[in-house]
Design goal:
Length: about 475
């Protein structure tokens, strides 16, 4: 008598993701103006929605986050002579593609036509095919409870909350297959709290106006920093959800919590709007309405960057520079300060240079790997390296020229007692920007130069010396 087959669920079990959500997110990213179609399709039934997405959206199954422990379970079952069946609520087109890629399945059962193969419908189909207790089943969610109930052995894989306890009550759990992830650490990584350091730019207008000692203004700037950080984290979460496919092709980004499957897509879709609401709600309640307007501009521009601008040559870097400058504008609004031409010009040129460093680093890696085609999700080719370095270094030097001209401005003469001392900052910045580009050329630059500067000892010393110079000039 042959051994009963091992039936394996797909979403949340074989892969640490959900193909319906992945397809919907790809659809939104590529055709955001048609987002209403998702609702229209859903109104005609979940099976219809899955069919329309499967025929519209291509998912690269080779890069999906497969669970190695489930793959091991499949190979062990094969070694014991069990047939392997893939049974999933995902659409048949996607299930067939996964089965073809892995090459381990003897049969595929999936959503097709009007049948949404989930929960009791999956149970009935499996009983019809293999009989009561005529198969083993590996699943992960509450929808799998009725299937486990009629299976010979139940394998519970990374279960949703409360599912394992209910599965145990059925008395046929063979094994718990779980990968423990430190959730707090994963969420901190997903929200990229280290990127909040960029929001320190909000304090620049306070420093430039020499009002750092005003406690009320300092508190307002700190609130602006907090709300900008919450907004930025919301954007990062949404960006990671929309960029799953591209991130999985990137050497380091493929380890991000959503791309790797360490955090569920469902949780990301719940958390990012909460952070956004806290950001805008807090800003509207505690800070000037103009700050909320700038926050809205930042969010809209970031969304445009994520969905389109990041794939367009030159516009991507200019957008990044603009996002940095918006932080300075927000800082000026919070303290009711004046935005000077010099500050805005310096910011735009300096951050354009750093944005180009980021692109240069990505392209250099691609060239080292022998690639010649356009970088995935970008508007550049590896052969653009030399031009990018030329444009980036020039932009950095222009920022220093702006600083030099600022020293001669009449208003500067009244703001500082010894403005000529600021000239000492020019060679320091020349050294720093030159060093940054040389390190990038040698392949020693972090892919985000702002984070590099925060961690780099030389950069920190230069920043401290700059602070001393401006203090002495005051």
């Amino acid at each position: 008598m042959s051994a009963p087959p091992l039936v394996v669920d797909l979403d949340g079990t074989l892969i640490r993701s959900d193909l319906l959500l992945e397809a919907a997110l790809i659809f939104i990213r590529t055709q955001p103006w048609l987002i209403f179609k998702l609702l229209l399709w859903l109104l005609q039934g979940k099976a219809y929605l899955k069919a329309q997405l499967a025929h519209t959206v291509h998912i690269e199954v080779a890069t999906l986050p497969y669970d190695p422990k489930v793959i091991h379970l499949i190979h062990s079952a094969q070694a014991q002579g069990q047939k392997i069946v893939l049974a999933t609520a995902s659409h048949k087109l996607y299930a067939d593609a996964v089965a073809k890629h892995l090459g381990v399945f003897n049969q595929v059962l999936a959503t097709e036509g009007d049948l949404n193969l989930s929960a009791r419908k999956k149970r009935d189909q499996l009983v019809q095919n293999f009989g009561h207790a005529g198969f083993d089943y590996a699943g992960n969610s509450k929808d799998d409870l009725p299937v486990w109930q009629v299976a010979r052995h139940a394998y519970v894989v990374n279960p949703d909350s409360g599912v394992y306890r209910k599965a145990l009550q059925q008395g046929n759990v063979q094994a718990l297959i779980a990968t423990e992830h430190p959730k707090l650490k994963l969420w901190l990584k997903a929200c990229r709290l280290h990127q909040w350091m960029k929001n320190l730019l909000i304090f620049v207008p306070l420093l430039a106006s020499h009002r750092l000692g005003h406690t009320d203004l300092l508190l307002d700037a700190a609130l602006g920093f907090l709300f900008f950080g919450l907004c930025a984290s919301s954007v990062y979460l949404l960006n990671d959800l929309l960029d799953l496919a591209d991130d999985r092709h990137h050497a380091s980004k493929r380890h991000r919590p959503f791309a790797s499957g360490s955090l569920s897509l469902q949780s990301g879709l719940l958390v990012f709007p909460v952070l956004l609401l806290l950001s805008f709600g807090g800003g509207y309640w505690l800070l000037p309405w103009q700050f909320v307007a700038i926050l809205a501009c930042y969010y809209a521009l970031t969304l445009a960057y994520s969905m389109l601008f990041k794939r367009l040559m030159a516009l991507d870097a200019i957008t990044l520079a603009g996002l940095y400058t918006l932080r300075i504008i927000a800082g000026a609004i919070v303290i009711d300060g004046e935005l000077t031409f010099w500050l805005l010009a310096f910011s735009m040129f300096m951050f354009l240079s750093l944005a180009l460093v980021k692109r240069y680093t990505e392209l250099r890696i691609a060239r080292v790997q022998g690639k010649t085609v356009k970088a995935r999700g970008r508007g550049y080719y590896p052969e653009d390296l030399e031009m990018l370095s030329s444009l980036g270094a020039s932009s950095g030097y222009l920022a220093i020229l702006v600083l030099a001209l600022y020293i001669q401005d009449h208003n500067t003469m009244t703001l500082y007692q010894h403005p000529k001392i600021i000239w000492l900052a020019c060679p320091l910045l020349l050294f720093w920007i030159t060093r940054v580009w040389l390190l990038a050329h040698r392949g020693k630059m972090h892919d985000d130069p702002v984070i590099f500067a925060i961690k780099d000892r030389v950069s920190l010393w230069i920043g401290a010396l700059m602070g001393v110079i401006f203090w002495a000039a005051t």
